[in-house]
Specification:
α2 crosses α5. By secondary structure, the protein is of the alpha+beta class. Helices cover about 25% and strands about 40% of the residues.
């Protein structure tokens, strides 16, 4: 080596040695070392997680903040293909509460293959799921230290940070087509403590999804968490306790079944609103699983229930205006807070409707209306409207010269603390939802409804169920043993 070349090599080596490692890369290296090292992480191709735990009944419990209703999760198995971004999950859920589908255990099977989300039914029928399920499963896939670190170490993600908050150091890892995941690590051990990502929820709007990691144990050269707790905003949704994870240097066959892979990605479901006359000036607006009702007064219209989705509620409102074009639709009666029965409430407010509901629902509705929906802008986000809401404790009467409607709180109903029903005394009609669903295999809440009818001495001939057909009172009596 000549003298000038030797000098050049020494200068390059000196400059390289003096070039500091970017702080985000150093933090990434520290985390990888705490888990077992970069090479060990990259050597894993398949990760299998098995165990048991519980799901909370978020948005469907007795109150929004209640945590007593849970599903015991057994037979949990989550397989992850770290090369192809594939995942398959199987679990069995058993409710610890009165459930409208019965108390029997329910086995669920679903998966993700790139941008294909799918589910497998009890009869092995495969269904391709929509974009929302795909996004949720990608989030679940990357809510694990190994999957997220592997994406960052493989340069399949961009890394920003770090920043310090208390005794945690945070790093932002952005994965193409999956979003940004904020990873918090313990400042002393460098082990991941939690991961957060943003999501969109039809009721709660812009939400933060967080998974906490704890109970680390060494598994084949890697430190892996044995306990996961996932929350949506302030609502805890899942806790899993794992047995020893399985690591493999070979890829598992987690490809989506051909029936899902070859199927077109489903679009938004078609909205079908079918109007059925209950009595003059009263209609059942059915057509799908969740119904509404329309009641005509002398100079305005009242809608009962805004369920399922924004699209469903907007279609129901359009049908109401079509049925009675000369009168304004001014009020919405909301039966209870459950997510499936309030997913359209923001759409109703955007259309100028005021809300009437039981006192216990008021704070929830106010929260839903003021929450931002910037991740997936809805009608109210695009055109804000003020909320006018009126709550009542036990009963309320809506009346003019043409119509009387009595609203009653179904106190003590085991479905929801705030459930209400609407009674039309002149027509002898009761409009209700979830307390009784005609034709359902079980009706665990029906006894309370019948008790309320009798205690209030309501002269009911027919029941308009917003989860089923119009039936005579005798059907409710038949559904309640020894009634």
């Amino acid at each position: 080596m000549n003298r000038s070349l030797s000098f050049t090599v020494l200068v390059v080596a000196a400059l390289t040695a003096c070039t500091p490692t970017p702080p985000e890369q150093q933090t990434l290296t520290n985390i990888a070392d705490a888990l077992g090292g970069r090479d060990r992480i990259l050597a894993v191709h398949t990760l299998t997680l098995e165990g048991e735990g519980m799901n909370w009944n978020v948005g469907q419990d007795m109150t929004m903040d209640a945590t007593g209703q849970t599903f015991a999760v057994t037979g949990y198995k989550r397989e992850l293909d770290l090369d192809a971004v594939r995942m398959r999950v199987q679990q069995t859920r058993t409710p610890n509460f009165l459930y409208y589908q019965g108390q029997a255990a329910q086995t669920q099977r679903f998966g993700l293959d790139g941008d294909v989300a799918y589910s497998i039914g009890a009869n092995d029928a495969v269904t391709r799921n929509g974009r929302s399920a795909m996004v949720d499963r990608r989030t679940e896939y990357f809510h694990h230290p190994v999957t997220l670190l592997r994406a960052a170490l493989n340069n399949a993600a961009t890394v920003a940070g770090p920043r310090s908050e208390g005794n945690e150091t945070w790093l932002d890892i952005t994965v193409p087509d999956a979003g940004t995941f904020s990873l918090a690590v313990d400042a002393q051990s460098n082990l991941p403590a939690r991961v957060r990502s943003r999501g969109a929820h039809p009721n709660l709007g812009d939400v933060v999804i967080e998974t906490e990691f704890s109970d680390y144990a060494e598994v084949d050269g890697l430190n892996l968490p044995q306990r996961f707790v996932t929350s949506i905003d302030r609502y805890r949704s899942t806790e899993m306790r794992l047995s020893r994870p399985t690591l493999s240097a070979s890829a598992a066959d987690l490809a989506a079944p051909a029936e899902a892979r070859d199927a077109a990605a489903p679009g938004a479901p078609a909205i079908n609103v079918v109007a059925e006359v209950v009595a003059p000036g009263v209609w059942l607006l059915a057509g799908q699983s969740h119904h509404s009702a329309l009641i005509e007064f002398a100079d305005h219209l009242v809608l009962v229930e805004a369920p399922q989705s924004e699209a469903r509620t907007l279609a129901v409102i359009a049908k109401a205006r079509e049925l009675v074009p000369g009168k304004r639709l001014t009020q919405l009666i909301s039966s209870h807070f459950h997510f499936d029965h309030t997913a359209g409430i923001r759409a109703a407010v955007a259309e100028g409707l005021s809300v009437i509901t039981q006192d216990g629902n008021v704070a929830y509705v106010e929260d839903v209306i003021r929450r931002p929906h910037t991740e997936q802008p809805d009608a109210l986000q695009r055109q804000p409207q003020p909320l006018t809401i009126e709550g009542f404790r036990d009963s309320k009467v809506l009346e003019d010269t043409t119509r009387r409607v009595e609203l009653y709180h179904l106190s003590g109903n085991p479905h929801a603390d705030t459930l209400l029903a609407a009674y039309l005394p002149a027509e002898r009609v009761l409009i209700q939802v979830d307390a009784f669903s005609p034709g359902a295999p079980v009706n665990p809440y029906a006894a309370n409804l019948l008790e309320q009818i009798r205690a209030r001495k309501l002269q009911v001939n027919r029941i308009v169920s917003l989860h089923g057909p119009i039936v005579p009172l005798a059907e409710l009596v038949k559904a309640v043993p020894a009634s």
